[in-house]
Amino acid sequence: MSGITGIIRDLNINPALYETFIHFFHASSWNHKTICIKWMKVVFGSGHIYKINNRAILLGDGVQQHKEGKKTPGVKKLRQESGDSSKGGYIFGHFYGVLGVLAGTSKKIFCIPLTAAIHNGVDVIRKWADEKHEAVSHVVQMAKDACEAASVFGESLLLLDRYYLSVPLLGELNKHNEKPGANRIFLVARAKKNLTAYTRPEEPGKRGPGAPRKKGMEVKLIDIFTHVANFASATVIWRGEEVPIKYTHVDLLWGKKLYQELRFVLVYAEGVKSILVSTDLTYTPEMIISLYGYRFKIEVTFKAIKQSIGAFFSHFWCKSMPKLNRYAKKDSPDPLESVIDKDDQNNIVRSLKAIEGHTLFGCIAIGLLQLLSLEFSHAIAPENFRWLRTKSNAIPSEATFIDFLRKSFYWMFANNRLSSILRFISLRQSQCFESPDDLAG
Q1: Which residue would you say has higher pLDDT here, 204 or 69?
Q2: Measured between alpha carbons, how far is 436 from 441 in angstroms, rounded to an integer?
Q3: What angle do CA 192, 195, 200 make, to 5 degrees?
Q4: Is residue 241 located within the same domain as residue 119?
Q5: Where are the alpha helices (DSSP H) in 276-419?
Q6: Domain termination residue (choose one: 355, 376, 397)
Q7: Does residue 85 sit in the same domain as residue 172?
Q8: pLDDT band at 177 (very low <50, low <70, confident <90, very high)
Q9: 395 inside domain
Q10: Beta strand pairing call for 218-220 and 196-198
Q11: Buried (b) or exposed (e) across 403-437, using 16+ Cβ within 10 A?
C-alpha cells in the first residue's frame, strides 16, 4: 500500500533502482490495449471461466477514486452518490471504467478484472496520443470493451447497472452482433422505475394509409406494480441466498428511434420494487433475476482492488499539466486546450499512461491471485496461517491468499532459487549485510 517505496523495502531492492521503477510506468515498451488483450487470453486459457448456457458472464461498472493532485491528468469534478451524510455531494478524482468476467465454480465465484481505464476527462489527452481517437461516452466505451472481450471469450452475457441502459449502449451492442462471424453479446441490466416502453404496432392492414408505425401504445412500467397481487411467486438464488419474490414479465419495445424488443421483468421482493431487462427474449424471468444477482461480484472485486492491492492509489503527476481549478464553471473551456507545446503534450500523455498502467497492473495482480486461489485451494489450509472467526468457503479469498503469500514468500524464495523471476529479483537486491554475524544479529 506504500507503492513503489513499499516494494523496494519488502524485497530489499537496491534503492538506486527507484527511478527505474518509476520509468517503467512511462515506458513505450508496453501498450495498454495490447496488455489487456493478452491478459484476457491468459484468463480465458486458465480453464476457470464460469459460464451459464455456454456464455461467459461479463460485468461492467464505473468506480470513482478521490484525488487531491492539482497537476494530475484526468482529475475532474465528480458527483458522489452516497447515503453517508458526512460525505460531500461532489469530489475531485478519477472516474474509471472496469470490465470483469466471472470465474470459478458454484462453490466460489470471482469477478476477474480484465480492463481498467479512465473514461472521463481525458479525451483531449487521448487525441494528442492518437489523432484517430474518437471521443465517446463512458457508457459506449463500456460496450466497446465488452465487445472486445467477447472476441476472446466467445458468446457472452453482459451484466450492468441501471445507469447503463441506454440507446447508445444497445446500438453499439447491436452493431457488434450484426458483424459477420462476431461472437454475439447479450445484455441483462436493471432499468429505472420511471421507464416507458411501447407495445408492438398494429398490423398495416388494420389501420389507415401512411407509413407503418414503429411503436404501439405507451406503457409506464411502474403502473404494472399496482397489480402486484397477481404476480407469480417464486424463490430464487440472489447473491448466494434463497429469497422469496413476486414477479411478472412483459415483452415491449423500448428506445427512442430504436424501438428494440426487450424482456422486462418486474420484481417485488422484501418491499422493494425493481425492473430488470434482457435483450435475450428466451431467458425466463427466474433466470434473468438470478443472473442479475451476480452483478454485485464486481463490487467485491473493487473492494479487493482498493483494500488489498491499492491499485487506484497512484500519485503520478506532471509539471506540464495546467493547475486544477476547483472553482471552474461547468461550461468553462478545458484548460488542456491551452497546452500547445508538443513536449508538454507528450509529458501529459505519458503521465496518464502511468496512472492507467498502475491501475491495470494492480487489476492483473488481483486477477492472478483469484486464479491461484481457484487452482491451488486444495493445497492451502488458511487455519494454519491465518485466524478466521468464521470459515465461509473452502476456496480462500483474495485477502487470505495475499496473507499466505506474504508469510511464505521468503520460504519460496529460498527453495526456488532457479526460478527466473526470483533470480531477477535477487540480482537487484541490496547487499546490506557484510557477514553471517550481521544476519544473526
Answers
A1: 69
A2: 9
A3: 140
A4: yes
A5: 285-292, 297-304, 342-376, 398-415
A6: 376
A7: yes
A8: very high
A9: yes
A10: antiparallel
A11: bbeeeeeeeeeeeeeeeeebeeeeeeeeeeeeeee
* Domain annotation covers residue 24: no
**Under 8 Å between Cβ of 278 and 261:** no
Q: Which domain holds residue 404?
A: 380-440
Residue 122 three-state SS:
coil
pLDDT, position 441: 46
First and final C-alpha spacing in the chain: 28
**Residue 269 falls in which region: left (phi positive, over 0), alpha (psi -120 to 50) or beta:** beta
Contacting residues for 302 by C-beta, under 8 A, at least 6 apart: 61, 63, 98
Query: Domain total for the chain?
Result: 2
From 338, 361, 376, the end of a domain falls on 376
DSSP E strands: which ranges in 239-303?
A: 241-254, 260-269, 272-278
For 368-396, what is the mean pLDDT?
A: 79
307 C-beta neighbours (distance < 10 Å), count? 11
> What string of DSSP letters covers 220-232?
EGGGGGGGGGGSE
Integer Cα distance of 441 and 169 in angstroms: 63
Span 276-282, average pLDDT: 96
399 burial class (0-12, 13-18, 19+ CB within 10 angstroms)? middle
**Given the C-alpha cell 464486481, which residue does it identify?**
298
Same domain, 368 and 384: no
Q: Which of 435, 436, 411, 414 is nearest to 423 (CA)?
A: 414
Do 116 and 164 fall within a single domain?
yes
Residue with grid cell 517503467, as numbered in its chain: 24
Distance CA 44, CA 48 (A): 8
Q: What is the pLDDT of residue 377?
A: 82
Task: Give a yes or no: residue 26 inside a domain.
Answer: no
DSSP states of 35-72 as a string? HHHHHHHHHHHTT-B-EETTEEEEEEEEEEEE---TT-
